[in-house]
Amino acid sequence: MSLSENDVNKIAHLARLGIENEDIASYAQDLSGLLALMVQMETLDTTGIKPMAHPLDQCQRLRPDVVTEQNQRDHFQAIAPQTQDGLYLVPKVIE
Amino acid sequence: MHSQTISQLAHGLRSGQFSSVELTQHFLGRIKRYPELNAYITITDQQALQAAQLADAKIAAGTVDQLTGIPMAHKDIFCTQGVKTSCASKMLDNFIAPYNATVVDKLNQAGAVMLGKLNMDEFAMGSSNETSFYGVAKNPWDTSKVPGGSSGGSAVAVAAQLAVYATGTDTGGSIRQPAALCGITGLKPTYGRISRYGMIAYASSLDQAGPMARSAEDAAILLQAMAGFDPKDSTSADEPVADYLASIDQPLQGLTIGLPKEFFAEGLNAEMATVLETAIAEYKKLGATIQEVSMPNLKLAIPAYYVIASAECSANLSRFDGVRFGHRCQHPQDLTDLYVRSRGEAFGKEVKRRILMGTYALSAGYYDAYYLKAQKVRRLISEDFSKALSEVDVIMSPVTPTPAFGIGEKLADPIEMYLADIYTIAINLAGLPALSVPAGFINGLPAGLQIIGNYFQEAKLLNVAHRFQQVTDWHQQVAKDFA
Predict the structure, then answer these.
(1) Side by side, which strands form the sheet with B185-188?
(2) What's the whole-model pTM score?
(3) B353 and A31 in contact by Cβ < 8 A?
(4) What is the CATH number of the domain that holds B167?
(5) Shortest Cα distance, chain A CAs vs residue B414, angstroms
(6) What is the value of ipTM here, to two decimals?
(7) For a 10 Å CB count at each end of chain A, is N or C smaller?
(8) How many separate domains does chain A show?
């Protein structure tokens, strides 16, 4: 399984990740090499094996439905790139 | 002063031989004397001196913990309120954390004096500290070599005595491998033993924080302060915390040590094999018996790990989008352009490689073949460990295939770098605790011994490591230029 430069561009788009044109060929090569490593997993029969999502097979804990957090909006927005009236600003989404 | 252990320093502080302010000034002086090591990203000298003054007042009042007034530093992955927390990325170069990680709060409560924030691989992705936005930290034993990673700055700071101890995180070996390459003691506890709250996430089902120190005894004191259930971390383990010092001196008579035959079958460097055999011989003298164990699925740990870690990283790092904090590109055309350019400008090449890999592995049509398959392989690897640990008390292995490699040597081939994690990553997949202790030298560079135990058996690991350190002095060696 090897990836083309076109594949890399598609994946980068899915990840909303800007990559330099001159790096695309090396990403295609690196990712193809990694995939070659990953297909080694096919040598192992995993029929009937339950996927392991968590090392201790814990269940998600529940807590009482009560307010525990204070409003810290100003504190958190102090480090935001751009805010106005308590809102985060981004370029216009709907024309 | 800088070569003393935590308990020696605590005694010195309590008996008035020196104050925490003096001790802190001494370490700040050392940090400034050795800038070429590039161990620190941020030095917080003013805050450190204030914390030291507070510690001195507490010591005078007699209300002290063993860690009160002892200078230390955090890996720059832990959020520290009011202090830059960069994760060694351009993405967070402007990020002043708005709250403390639980680990930071816990150590603050114990009276720790933070000297600063330590260098690391960008977002903890790397095994050499070379992916840091702030440049590579240097190995004190040979400054042309890497210190290992991702907790490279932490290992350098402790090894060169620029901090008494440091925090680290370990997703695939990131505490144990730099500890081994720099000649210090590093413990990755059981997954969930230490809270991940405020620790910037890389691969959430693998990430675990731990102490990096000069001895197993120091690591035990630190784990005591760092461990425990935290309701703010949904995967925190609700298990009682043992008294790690209580059993540290227990004799090892009757201990059974498992050696996985798959680790010794092929590819083990002859000098590393000698280091290991010498360590095993020491353990036999201490009364341990050796038994071969078999873990047939270990060979698939690297592919499974890089699928799972990349997939989880691609999801975790989607929060860095230039909207709420971190780097934002100039003059975005539209929302997509804002995301694409902010992320494109601020992530380094290794981080991008893993995001791309993970995005691919999780994309429509490939999920079953990669992520689901890797999770099944993960269970089989974990079962291999469970079986082996039902036959023996601990498992021992090398930490790394070779001692520290040269800066730049493996950068061109990422896969070669990944393959060097062979001895450490399977432990993260299983979620087990493991510890790295200095066990010798190869051509003047430190080599480590890895001790792996069963879930929540950190006390046993620290005991096994401590007894070894009572009969060897590898952990007391210091690079002569930084003695």
Answers:
(1) B40-43, B113-118, B71-75, B165-170, B208-213, B185-188, B434-442, B445-452, B394-398, B256-260, B289-293
(2) 0.97
(3) yes
(4) 3.90.1300.10
(5) 7
(6) 0.96
(7) C
(8) 1
